[in-house]
Amino acid sequence: MKFLVIVQDLRVSGTSEGIVSRSFISYLRKTFPKSTIDVLYLRCHNGEDDLKLLPVNSLITYEISRKIPFFTRMLNKVYWRLFHYSLKDDHIQKQFKKKIQNKESESYNHIFVRSSGQEYETVLGLYGLKHLKKAIINFHDPYPVFWDTGSNMSLTNLELFRLKKMKEIVDTAGVCISPSQHLSKDLELLYGSNKKFYTLPHIFDIDVFNLNEITKLREKKVKVTITYHGSLQLGRDIDIVLDSYIYIINNNDFLKKNSEFVLRLKSNQYNRLKEKYKSIANIKILSAVSFLESLYEQKHQSDIIIILENKFDYSNILPGKVAVIAGINKRFLSVSPKDSEMRRLLEGTNYIAHSTNKDSIISKLEKLLSDVQDDKTFYSPIADYFCLNSFKLTINAFLNDE
Q1: What pLDDT, in 10s, does the model give residues 358-386?
Q2: 271 CB contacts (<8 Å, ≥6 apart)?
Q3: Is 0.70 surpassed by the pTM of this model?
């Protein structure tokens, strides 16, 4: 069998999509060890991507510029309001389309297409191309952005035009997939499509990351360490988690002396949080580090990892870090909405708390802290869901149905 993977992000740090796309290629090789896997890498960012670690037959990289010509920018200020069509979008998508068009498709059995961010340039670059009929398109987030549950965008005619164009792509594509059952169902409804959206969860494979040069960044000096590594956009509220932790340690002398909550933040809320919690010695608010450094700290120093979702009633995404946490077999607490993919996976366990219910967070966090304090054995309740065997079953199901 012969595969082409069109991908936008293979960085080892900076975005979750780079991490899961690398892992996807690795799992694809492990599932089809004798197949040909070629990669077309349409890169439009800076950052380390350590491509030599990827188990592929060939990899071609093109640098795509996001710079919009001055005349196009000026004309677009009027054009999109009159015609509900963005010349800026069109300019960038044409750069992707040109590179995809030049790559022959006839010899491939399947073409996987993975985007990064919220613009879906690799997918939209397929519009009108014959590659589309063999394409297996991955939707990592809702598109257009208006339909993202964490978005505060208004519904405009431009968003409706984007929806219409993506619907045409969905209708023509060979297969559509997403990492979440909630998202798959929502996209089927959004695009009004009879096409089934398959669910292929994010995966993480440590084999495509080089951990040899990572040095220890900080010393673990207490019995119990809780960590949160990440950003705070799209409605995520870390304050309620920190306040819950403060309540717990104020009522437990052992944990007050023998626990810490370490945050590695990439957020414009860094200074606000540092000021708000500066009097709490147990809370350490630190700057973000690279993914590999973060992975080292979470693997070797964390006892409980916080997964933080939005504070709304609903979330249809699967956070990329969940697969990483499953892969390193660490205790975690997912602070998630009432209706979410994480709740679907974890309902009835001690690893899920409601994102706006402080009592729920306190109750679940206390239980996990007690388990760590008592040195109880832990096996991740989601390990099987993210394992290689599960990946093999799912990918063979939709390839055979294509």
Answers
A1: 999 999 999 999 999 999 999 999 999 99
A2: none
A3: yes
